[in-house]
Write a structure and sequence with these properties.
- By secondary structure, the chain is of the alpha/beta class.
- 41% of the residues lie in helices and 21% in strands.
- It contains ten helices and 15 strands.
- β3, α5 and β4 form a beta-alpha-beta unit.
- α1 packs across α2, α1 packs across α3 and α1 packs across α4.
Amino acid sequence: MNSRPDFAAIEAFVRVAETGSFRAAALALAAPVSTVSVQVSRLEERLGTRLFERTTRRVRLTDEGERYFEQVRAGLDVVTEAERAVAERRGEARGRLRVAAPSGFGEGVLGRMLGPFTQEHPHVDVEIELAAGQLDPLRDGFDVVIQAEPAASASLVARKLGAPTKYRLVASREYLARRGTPAHPRDLAKHVCLVMGTRREATTWRFVRGASRPAIVHRHATANSWPLIRDLAAAGCGIARLPEYLAAPAISEGRVVPVLDDYCPAVEQMYAVYARGRHVPARLSSFVAALQRFLAVWPGCLPPPPPRAKT
């Protein structure tokens, strides 16, 4: 056996062991799955033993793999910690940052805050994936996941992002001129309601002022994309219930106007969820801090659109 350690193969092995998946390890290492597989096979050949039991459904450490994992992980953590500490002493946030976020939040918020962030941190390469459903940063290979749920396990950390997000009802002026403006949540029964989701049953929109019961609205159109629901409302298709980070820009730009604003639809809290560890990379802590600062003044900081030039 060659006496010189194969550090690339060892890191690939550790990432597969941590995530339980060659695909997730490849995402974390920014490498093809085939490369990670070859590196692990090379390490097994070097050690003369199988480290993983592989099936079509799962990857599991062998007994030898378990013992090897416990020994090399500690050493790899020490090396990684040393590299990060040196980089942070230079005051640099650098490296690849993989972010997952809901489509509406990604398009409505991240698209606006990333410009200043990347200018401030030019050595951070941000990769954003817009995804539906709850993800696990460790299992799915992300540095941070933006979601409306707190951390699901003790191995994860959840940081609140700004104040809870208010929901607002909006519609186009053309639609309201054609169908009338509702004065009370019960009036929604007479209107076209644009609903986020794909299920067929009636939907409940909750209100807190003057409405003793939630308002049951019947879906006249549905979509599984917040930006699409916003665009349907702007096109005069009906009344939509949007999170503030999508409603505010559309209102400011004159695409829609608020409806039943005094009745305050319910709110949700957004979180940045990432793996718990002794050391948070500077690129991750800088990103979360920048997002928190941005949302501290959002959407009140949104300026009105510039007037169109006359042609």
